[in-house]
Each structure stands twice: as C-alpha cells, then as structure tokens.
C-alpha cells in the first residue's frame, strides 16, 4: 500500500470564479427588490446577479478603482458571506417569507458557495492594501512611540462631517450618514468576537472584556447596538437589519467588511490589533463630534447616547488595546509580529480615509440633483448634434420597475424619451425626470430609479466624462 | 524616540534631524529608510548605486557597500503608505526636525512589483 500525498492550493480560474459568484448571488433571497427598503427581513440583500457575468473578481482592484461597480458588487457579496456566521432574526415573528429566507441564508449551499468565492473577493477589494510596506527593525519601544503618537491627539472634523454641515439638506445628509453605520453598528463587535474564540493566553481574556463593554454587560438596554437603534429611531429611521441595504455605499460596506476580513482570516490576527487600536483611539474624538453634529442638525430630538457612551468607554478601549492586548501579545509572540500590527494600523487609516471621502462626495452628489438635471440639456445637445458620440443603451420599462441601486465606472447621461422616471440618488433624495428631460450621472455615485408612468422609454449614454462634453 | 512623517518622492522627501538627513529608498528587493550620509566619510548615500547582484547599495565616494536586506530588516523602523513614510528615529522625541529635498539615485526610485 502506498499513499502519495497531493496537497494543492485552492484556486479558481476566472471563469469558475464568475460562475460560482453568479451561482451564489442567484439565490432567491439575493434577487432585485421591488421596494427600496427591506422590511423586517434580515436575509434579503440585493446582489444584482444579472450583472455578475460582466464583472471580473479575479484580480485585486487598483487603488484608483476601489469605488467602481465591481467593488460595490464584491463588497455586497462579502458582507453577505461574512454575515452567514452571525445570528439574525426578524423582529416581528416569522412569516412564510422570512422562514424561507432564514433557511436559505443559513443553508449549507449558501455557506459553501460563499466560502469558495470569499478568498478572491477579499483579494479583489482589499488587495490594494498590499501597497503598504513595513520595513526596518521594529522593537516594542519603537512600536509604542509609533502608536502613542495618536493618543490624545485632537482630530479635525472629517470631510463627511463638513459635507453634512455644508449640505443644502443637512437632515437628509445626516440620515444617510447614520445609514452608512448600520452594517457595522447593529452587529457591533461581531467581527471582534471571532478573535475571542480559541485558546491563546491572557490576551484572550483581556479582549473578552472589551466585548463585555460592547455588549452592555449583558443588559440589553445598554448594548451598543440598542443605543444605536435608539439613535436611528430618534431621527425617523428604522433599525431593521439592512432595511437600507440599497443605500449603503461601497466604502461603508468595505469598512465593516474589513474587520470581518481580519477576524475571519486568523492569519491576519496581528493586523486586527493594529486596526483595533486605531479605531478605538480615534473614535473618542469622532464620537464627541458626531454627538454635537447630530444635535446641531436635528436639535435635542436626536438621541446621541450611542456616541456619548463611546466617548466614555473608548478612552479605556484605546488604552486597553495598547496595554492589555498589543504589548502583551508582543511579549508573548516576539517582536517579529510588530510589522503586522503596524500594517493593520495603516490599513484601517487608508480605508477610513476612502470611506470619509466617498460619503462626502455622495452628499455633494445628492445635493447636486437639481443641477445635474439642468446639465442634461447641454450634454444632450452635444449628443443630438453628433458632436459627442458615446455608447448608448435603449431601455423600455413598465410602471413600478425598480432599478436596484448601483453605480457606473464613468459619467453617464440619462435621457427620457417618453414617460416619467423617479431618479434616486440616496435615501430620501430624488429627481422626477419627464420626457425630454434627464440627468447627468456622476462616476462611482450610487443611484437607482423607479418608473412612475405606464411605461418609460429612456436612453443611457456612457459619455465617460460629462465635463469634457461641455467644453 | 521620535516619530516623523515625510514624503517618498517630491519636494519634501528628506527629513533632517539633528543634522542627519534621512530618505526613503525603493529598490527591487524592498524599501527602507536610511540616513543619507555614508558612515565612512559622509558621502551622499541617497545617490548610491545598487550593485549588479541587486543585493548591495554602493556609496558613490569610496564604494563602501551595504547589504540591502540588512538595511531593510535591521534598519530604521518605518512604514510607507502611498507617498508618505512614517519612521521612528533613534533620537530624543524633542529633537529638531526639518524637511528638505534630496535627489535620489535611479536605483532607489524603483520599488517592488505591485
Ligand atoms: S564616504 Fe561613503 S564610502 Fe566613503
Ligand atoms: Fe444607472
């Protein structure tokens, strides 16, 4: 009897990957929604399988394409795959639809198919972080100096906060902002808990204490997710899980996926520590400003306890992350783990920056709705006269047809030939477009549409850069 | 220890602390922060060439060679993200810091394949 071991890496070629991704996303719970919001059904997430055959997840996206449609699609897939590890139940009891969703979402088919494509999706959306290079001889002392620098450092208001304050509709902007936090905050600490499982020494117990804080010491009313639900409710939003799935930006999903990515892949354990330190330390200032911002925008109606609680507790968490997790783990494992900790610290900064800029731009995009509608006329004139030639899609849709939210990799012009379209550029943000009208659509900006007439005939011209059409 | 930020390329690609200039070198075998002054007689290490093996940086003045692996692994602790370097220098935290520009030899403007 002879046995020749044959252990090979798991690999998919691009065609297999596309087929498996399509298969995963074709699950009935992931098809397009007829409504804008998912109502009390935590298993429904719109993954737009009809587009997957045009996408290539097989290579890392370069930094400049990290907000392209392919990234949105991959982040939606990843969030769905990671969350199959988490427990969700509808709030109002099981209906036929939620029972079916429950069984589908937690089925072995869904999980197995998701796991096969996950490594590629992760490389697709997080591969650009490989650009970060750590070098030199890191010691505990240099690590302490490097990490210590952000402690107590006052941070500037972020681009997103400024965009909300400067918005023509700060309430709308602030609601959209809170919506972006929902994927992270409603199941807060779940990615972290992935690191509390196992058997690895005293740090495991220290980490567990952070989890206990996040979970409100077992008192449901003080669990951080409960505090966030109260914030949502106080400004007229609902806390159904992923009710606002269609309004999540690419980078918001990326932020919450990032911690699942680190927590799910335990070879990235040390990066998690660096990323955790950055987030816990900067959150103190951020939460203080967030509480003020929401109070300024909504008045005292806004329940900001979620944020004020974090101002109190994260002072401790930043310190705990450094003194009780990071330094002891370096003592235990040796200084060779430091470059990974440093890398995680830098990675999360990079992602947080992308998310901040992405949301600020989305606020400008929502605010620019009326102006983009006006800009249709000059761009359309260039197309009509033949001065601008761009690929065009002719589309006919019936009343109620809902184009689930998405974004394009270049600017487009939407032109209505007949009928009426409600063009949606965010939560509570839309323009009505009638025959002869239309809108400029910015590159990488989330949008969707619904037909408000018996039928609507329209054209999408892929102009690439609409400003170039106007010069 | 002193934590400093400076640019990989461009007008502010050199940080000077207590009279010692530091730059960021990118080679095919990895990148690292190094003092731009040769320990032999103060030659401009920012203008060093890399030898034929690609493994050693060679000072333009008297050809003193230093292993790139050593510079990378045993050198100044640093991290680069985009065009920004953060380095932890072995000097007191209150040392005086200025940023300037130093030209870099082509061998140090490479960088690993992404
Ligand atoms: S100064 Fe560098 S080798 Fe002499
Ligand atoms: Fe579109």
From TrEMBL, chain A:
> Which portions of this protein are annotated as coiled-coil regions?
none
The record's section on CDD domains has: cupin_SznF-like_C
Q: What is this protein called?
A: Iron-containing redox enzyme family protein
Q: Which domain of life is it from?
A: Bacteria
* A Pfam family hit: Haem_oxygenas_2
Q: Which InterPro entries match?
A: Haem_Oase-like_multi-hlx, RmlC-like_jellyroll, RmlC_Cupin_sf
């Amino acid at each position: 009897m002879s046995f020749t071991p044959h252990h090979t890496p798991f690999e998919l070629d691009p065609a297999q990957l596309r087929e498996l991704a399509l298969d995963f996303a074709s699950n009935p719970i992931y098809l397009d929604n007829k409504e804008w919001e998912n109502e009390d059904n935590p298993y429904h997430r719109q993954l737009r399988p009809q587009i997957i055959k045009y996408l290539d997840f097989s290579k890392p996206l370069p930094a400049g394409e990290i907000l392209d449609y392919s990234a949105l699609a991959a982040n939606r897939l990843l969030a769905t795959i990671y969350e199959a590890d988490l427990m969700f139940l509808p709030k109002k009891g099981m209906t036929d639809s939620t029972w079916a969703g429950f069984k589908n979402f937690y089925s072995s088919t869904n999980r197995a198919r998701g796991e096969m494509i996950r490594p590629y999706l992760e490389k697709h959306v997080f591969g650009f972080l490989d650009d970060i290079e750590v070098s030199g001889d890191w010691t505990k002392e240099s690590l302490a100096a490097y990490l210590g620098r952000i402690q107590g450092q006052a941070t500037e208001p972020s681009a997103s906060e400024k965009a909300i304050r400067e918005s023509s509709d700060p309430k709308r902007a602030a609601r959209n902002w809170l919506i972006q936090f929902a994927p992270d905050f409603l199941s807060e600490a779940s990615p972290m808990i992935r690191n509390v499982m196992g058997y690895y020494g005293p740090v495991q117990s220290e980490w567990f204490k952070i989890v206990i804080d996040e979970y409100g010491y077992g008192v449901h009313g003080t669990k951080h997710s409960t505090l966030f639900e109260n914030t949502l409710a106080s400004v007229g939003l609902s806390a159904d899980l992923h009710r606002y799935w269609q309004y999540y930006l690419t980078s918001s999903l990326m932020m919450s996926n990032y911690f699942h990515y680190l927590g799910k892949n335990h070879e990235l354990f040390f990066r998690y520590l660096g990323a955790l330190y950055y987030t816990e330390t900067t959150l103190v200032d951020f939460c203080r400003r967030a509480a003020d911002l929401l109070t300024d925008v909504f008045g005292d109606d806004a329940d900001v306890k979620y944020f004020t609680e974090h101002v109190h507790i994260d002072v401790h968490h930043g310190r705990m992350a450094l003194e009780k997790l990071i330094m002891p783990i370096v003592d235990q494992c040796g200084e060779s783990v430091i470059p990974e900790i440093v890398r995680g610290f830098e990675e999360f900064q990079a992602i947080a920056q992308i998310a901040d800029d992405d949301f600020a731009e989305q606020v400008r995009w929502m605010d620019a709705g009326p102006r983009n509608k006006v800009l249709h006329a000059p761009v359309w004139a260039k197309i009509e006269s033949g001065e601008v030639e761009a690929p065009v899609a002719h589309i006919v849709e019936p009343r109620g047809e809902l184009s689930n939210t998405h974004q394009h990799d270049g600017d487009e012009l939407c032109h209505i030939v007949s009928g009426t379209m409600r063009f949606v550029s965010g939560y509570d943000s839309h323009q009505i477009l009638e025959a002869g009208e239309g809108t400029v659509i910015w590159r990488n900006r989330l949008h969707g549409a619904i037909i408000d007439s018996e039928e609507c005939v329209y054209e999408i011209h892929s102009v690439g850069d609409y400003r170039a059409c106007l010069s | 220890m002193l934590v400093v930020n400076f640019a990989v390329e461009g007008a502010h690609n050199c940080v000077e602390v207590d009279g010692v200039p530091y730059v960021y070198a990118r080679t095919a075998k990895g990148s690292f922060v190094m003092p731009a002054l040769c320990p032999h007689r103060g030659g401009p290490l920012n203008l060093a060439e890399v030898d034929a093996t690609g493994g050693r940086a060679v000072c333009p003045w008297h050809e003193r060679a230093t292993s790139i692996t050593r510079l990378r692994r045993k050198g100044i602790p640093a991290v680069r993200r985009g065009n920004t370097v953060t380095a932890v220098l072995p000097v007191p935290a209150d040392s005086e810091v200025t940023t300037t520009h130093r030209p870099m030899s082509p061998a140090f403007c490479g960088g690993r394949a992404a």
